[in-house]
Input
Amino acid sequence: MAFAPEQTYRSPGFWRRLRSGNLTEAQLGFMLLAPAALVLALVMLWPILQVLWQSLHFERLNLPARGRPFIGLEHYRRMLWGTDMMWDLQHLLGWRLLGLAALVAVVWAGARGFLTRTTAIAGAIVIVLVAGLAMGFHPSPDGRWGDARFWNAFSITLLITVASVVGSFLIGLPLALLANVPSRWRWLVRIALLIPWAMPRVLVGVMFAWLFNSTNGVVNDVLRRLGVEGPLWLARAESAVWATNITIVWATSAFVGLILLAGLQSIDDSLYEAAMVDGASPWQRFWCITLPLLRPSIAVALIFRTLTAIQTYDIPYAMTRGGPGRTLETLGIYVANTTNSLNLGYAAALSVALFGMSLAVTVLYLRWIYADD
Amino acid sequence: MRQRHGPLTRAAVVVGTALLVLNGTFPLAWMILTSFKDENELIRIPITYLPTAPTLKNYAQVFQQLPFDRFMLNSAIVSLTSTMVCVLIAALAGYALGRLNMPYRRALLTLIVTTSMFPALVLLVPLYRMFLGMDVPLLSPLVAFLHDLGMSFLPTEVRTPNLLNTYWALIIPYVALSLPIATLILTSFFQLIPRDLESAALVDGCTRVEALFRVIAPVSAPGVVTAAIIIFVNSWNEFILAMNFNTALSMRTVPVGITMYQGEFAFPWATISAAITVGVLPLVALILFFQQKIIAGLTAGGVKG
Output
């Protein structure tokens, strides 16, 4: 059978190629990607689906007799709305709703172009800060409006996110500009930038708790030498929130600085020369060349900073254990505490809230980046 | 070249740089100074900046009060194992994404990097449940069904082992958490290796896989080291999962262990600062030796991400 159809050439299949060690590039590529895909699917994606499912179930490991019944959105109702919600105007028109409405209005106005973007962002930040400060320290004891602990944690997390992200940029940008100046001491500068990044965040918290110690700490000693009596930093919520934010800014501004430094180093020197020939002042050079060209790096640093700030856990935990009392309990600490008290169903619902926040932030930022490019 | 700056500008830069260095190093330096002071010296009221009577007592205390050597061992085992596993997996993925002509390359890389934006905290509850031991989906019902059919030698359910308070409870999530950034770093390093090198190996009769291990692997060593350092630092520093998964004292890691020196109201600062000094020593050593590599790795992640 000289020309039977079986004799025509057929490209070898996957298994034959695998056995002979001659996979096509695409086949080899997918094989090499398989372990990474497996790990990410099993340890990242599957748990996230699971936490969504878990949040719809009642489960307390210390009450095994109750089992794991399906309860629908009951956890979310308890978290956001409360179990014995009363429909009176006083509650509906409470400042929480007002603050939220103002925030929505500002964001909407910014999106529609009634306000410039800078004004909208600044307005949103101011509203969040004021609302956070106003409601953060007064968890209502009756818990009538939703889970008071949740709302407290939510506002503290918002406050820490806004304050520490803004703070780490205000500190990180000068750090990057300074580190970009060529000098003999560059290695020292580099180490000074790397140490805050590499320190475990908990230990940063412990270190600063000692610095902020009200009687024997360095901060109050310096203040005393300047003739000011420093506050009892960590004992009162109002000052503890600042101490915590300063610590977070210290730990994270170095990271922002490193990312921005990389951006600065990729800017072409000839642009500055051209600007100098044209007689631009240093301020103009910074404003018209450095800042616009730094935008991609700023966006990256902003996204990563915000996402890590939403999960803030280590530093407030190490400094005050989420205290004094429960006033500085962030969402992260609340999730962990609920897990530790073995109420896994509710902890899952709280995690979903946290996940929702970071998802919302990511989507907002990505839209902001892609809208302009 | 840049223009010469005036003396005022130069002075400002020098002062700024000095402040920067002071800001970055002072808290750690203060911890080290504190660790050499006596417990009584710490509560003196005009505080002393340099230790008046340096003592090593606190370092002995660190190891006497809690099994700190055990914490170090746990941290070392967990971090090193997860670093090795993660580098291996990330190198394979990075090679595929950086060097091979495969479809959807950019989309796959974006997908992997996006997973790094998932908050680790969200993993706390599902992984806790998973490590506590759970029915294996599909397999467990199947085995139970066969058992009911009469194969009584089979168990009625298949449960995963309880991994809490073992090294695996930390290694598994650490590998997954560092995988996206490591893949990103290694992908950008693999892209920098000239293609001719590999083509030459292929012409000489290597297969793709042989070329990967014999030619590409040695050349890519710097990239691998960079990725490894960053994974190591991430794993050494991780707190939330370590705190909640490994609750037995003998399975604590260094960052968690250090927080255990403080009691409800007592803060033995001298001991705590000695423990911190010992605990961050490996990290500071890494930074001193590999500062340039670390910055290269961080910025590869930053610029491309």
Notes: The longest helix of chain B spans residues 269-304. Chain B has two domains: 22-55, 66-132+163-304. The domain at 66-132+163-304 of chain B is CATH 1.10.3720.10 (MetI-like fold). Chain B has a mean pLDDT of 83.
